[in-house]
Design a protein that fits this description.
With about 325 residues, the chain is an alpha+beta fold. It has two domains: about 10-50, no CATH class; about 70-310, Bira Bifunctional Protein, Domain 2 (BirA Bifunctional Protein, domain 2), CATH 3.30.930. Helix content is about 40%, strand content about 25%. The protein is built from eleven helices and ten strands. It has helices at about 5-15, 20-30, 30-45, 50-60, 70-85, 105-110, 130-140, 195-215, 230-245, 290-295, 310, and strands at about 90, 100, 120-125, 155-160, 175-185, 220-225, 250-255, 265-275, 275-285, 300-305. An eight-stranded mixed beta sheet has the order 1-4-5-10-9-8-6-7, with helices on both faces. Strands 2-3 form a two-stranded antiparallel ribbon. A hairpin with a 2-residue loop joins strand 8 (about 265-275) and strand 9 (about 275-285). It is globular and about 65 Å long.
């Protein structure tokens, strides 16, 4: 397949007089050989750089500047949310700063250019739920029994994320930011049992976080997505299960978006009011990532996250 070229890429290829360069690099050499080539290129490039060049790059690169957030407040908030999650049997884990190349685009079907691709087969983490899912899939592949009934795997983390798309001066859109993320894995046992249990487990954690740390209530907005045969039935069963659990949470339904391919079945949005400020602070939903990686339609996965920087800023 011929790659789609931007005007800048076309200009570069004309300058090099190598119109087929991208095809050659993609199709004719292995990933390891491409990595060796690029390592040499960057090594030679840095040899010609001076300390003044380095400072210039620092000043011009929006990804490398410190965050404006109060670091002591952020670290305390991280510890508080992880402590609350642990009391709900969600295991905290410290992730690597990098993920395998393609982690965001292959699993989450987002454009690879929204992540910062790196060398040695890696990319900077742009979505920690992707990397948590890879860890869970590896555990299932190597350590867990084939019979995983009643055996949920629950992980959470706080992680600094980098997203490459440019939002200009849009409020709240930062080049790097902290998220608290949760991922729960299980298997389908019928009657949406995994979906009902796992979703309300996540909601209980968020309810406890905002009540304990901010004295605020949360509202959950459930929106239908494609990927399940009966999305309306899925949403209604989950709402009913919340009533059965006597969850004191406001629940409403949003507009269905069947074109959204990221979540499957439903997406939930978290809304809260702290002081006089209204926050749409996070979201979550079911995804098919473990199904695709492990080759089993019985696998189920719920992911969710909230932004931490915004709660402090």
């Amino acid at each position: 397949m011929e790659p789609t070229l931007t005007a800048d890429l076309e200009r570069i290829l004309r300058k090099l007089e190598k119109a087929d360069l991208i095809n050659l690099l993609v199709d004719r050499i292995s990933s390891s050989d491409l990595n060796s080539l690029l390592l040499k290129v960057f090594s030679e490039k840095t040899k010609t750089s001076s300390p003044n060049d380095l400072l210039k790059r620092y000043r011009e690169n929006r990804f490398v500047h410190p965050a404006e957030v109060d670091v002591l407040l952020l670290k305390k908030l991280e510890m508080d949310v992880l402590d609350i999650a642990s009391k709900h049997s969600i295991s905290a884990i410290q992730l690597s700063p990098v993920a395998p190349l393609g982690c965001a685009s292959v699993l989450g079907t987002v454009d690879q250019n929204k992540a910062i691709s790196a060398l040695r087969g890696t990319e900077v983490v742009s979505d920690a739920t992707n990397l948590l899912t890879l860890h869970i899939s590896d555990l299932i592949k190597t350590n867990y029994s084939k019979n995983r009934r009643d055996n949920f795997i629950r992980f959470c983390t706080t992680h600094r994320h980098v997203r490459a798309q440019f939002f200009g001066d849009a409020p709240g859109m930062l080049p790097h930011f902290h998220l608290f993320c949760m991922v729960t894995s299980g298997v389908d046992e019928g009657s949406y049992s995994f979906e009902k249990q796992s979703l309300w487990e996540h909601i209980k954690v968020y309810q406890s976080i905002f009540k304990t740390l901010f004295g605020s209530e949360i509202e959950i907005i459930l929106s239908e997505r494609n990927g399940y045969k009966d999305t309306a039935g899925l949403v209604s069963r989950i709402i009913k299960h919340g009533h059965e659990l006597s969850m004191n949470v406001s629940v409403s339904t949003g507009e269905p978006d069947k074109e959204n391919q990221y979540y499957k079945g439903l997406q939930f949005t978290l809304k809260t009011v702290i002081g006089e400020t209204e926050y749409y602070i996070g979201d979550g939903g079911f995804v098919d990532w473990t199904q695709n990686m492990l080759g089993s339609r019985k696998e189920r996965l719920l992911i969710s996250a909230i932004g931490l920087d915004r709660l402090i800023l």
